[in-house]
Amino acid sequence: MLRLATRGSALALWQASWVANELSRLNVGLDVELVVVSTEGDRRRDVPLAEIGGKGVFVKEIQAAVLDGRADLAVHSAKDLPALTPEELVIAAIPIRADPRDALVGRALAEIPTGGRVATGSKRREIQLRELRPDLEIVGIRGNIGTRLDAVDRHDAVVIAAAALHRLGDEDRIVQYLSTVEMIPQVGQGALGIECRADDIDTIDRVHHLDDDPTRRCVLAERAFLQELGGDCDLPAGAFAEIALGNNTGDGPGDGPIEIRGLLAGADGRVHRSSQRNVNGPDAGAALARYLRTRAEA
Q1: Any bridge partners for residue 276, and if so which?
Q2: β-sheet bridge partners, residue 29
Q3: Is residue 246's pLDDT more than 80?
Q4: Residue of 46, 68, 72, 80 marked catalytic
Q5: Residue 84 DSSP class
Q6: Please, are residues 237 and 231 in contact by the beta-carbon 8 Å criterion?
Q7: Are residues 244 and 203 in the same domain?
Q8: Domain membership flag for residue 216
Q9: CA quadruple 10, 12, 18, 24: dihedral, nearest 10
């Protein structure tokens, strides 16, 4: 028996159930029990994340359940994970990534009238929407996927992660996908992170079979970018890493250099973009963050 800690939202339960089913499939005879944990981020949906501690409000209480023994492992949306993992925990697996793009529900960008209203709770999305359509009114929103879908009736469009809509079977609501070039995703978007206690070797061994090495390399590069900036989801920044084309290492298609693209908005509102390429993903992510921070502070 393994006890798997998760948030109680529909999306979190889908993700936890998927992990539980995969663990049972790979470890014949293994039972996985879900341990639902209420987080401050779920309880205080009417308060902006920045005011209650940023993205960590979705994971700290779940991590505590693993650390105090109420659960053996936890599953998170990788984009909710703070840049630093507690020393007592380890990200034992990052399964293959789902669609990392953002999506519009309601109207496509070109169909929104001048001065139209688009809802998002992310500064990263807001600054990029303003680049694409400076005329739009960007409205703040928080809540689970159902709440955001309901908000479409009061706005011209709502921006939601494509992976979340696909996982919940709501992909038919998508009217436009925003490419990772025009809308650089949040660090870790579309990926899952499975945490265990660092000293729980048996659980780590079981969970490791869910790990996808190319996805891990890319997500770790993005997390190094975030760590170097010292920020979380409230920071007007984003990064997306891929295995670079033209792999010349002579190994497999997932062993080539990492190419990471990122953006950071300065205090003056200007948006700075750049990219880095390196076989060592975390080095590429950290170098990109340093460069963009220098540009933003200039």
Answers
A1: 260
A2: none
A3: no
A4: 80
A5: S
A6: yes
A7: no
A8: no
A9: -120
pLDDT of 233 > 60? The answer is no
Radius of gyration of the chain (CA): 19
CATH number of residue 73's parent domain? 3.40.190.10
The DSSP symbol for 200 reads -
Residues 88 and 151 placed together within one structural domain of the fold:
no
* The residue to which tokens 């080539």 are assigned: 256
Whether 54 and 126 share a structural domain: no
156 is catalytic: no
User: Interhelix angle for 281-297 vs 213-229, to 10°?
Assistant: 30
Domain extent at residue 250: 221-297
**Total residues found in the chain within this entry:** 298
* Structure-derived torsion over alpha carbons of residues 78, 82, 85, 86, reported in degrees to the nearest 10: -130
Quick: pLDDT tens for 99-143. 999 999 999 999 999 999 999 989 999 999 999 999 999 999 988
- Give the pair of three-digit tokens for residue 45: 């949906």
Kindly list the distances between the CA atom of residue 274 and the CA atoms of 181, 251, 282, in Å, as whole numbers in the listed order. 11, 27, 16
Both 7 and 92 in one domain: the answer is yes
Q: For 233-291, give the secondary structure using H, E and C.
A: CCCCEEEEEEECCCCCCCCCCCCCCEEEEEEEECCCCCEEEEEEEECCHHHHHHHHHHH
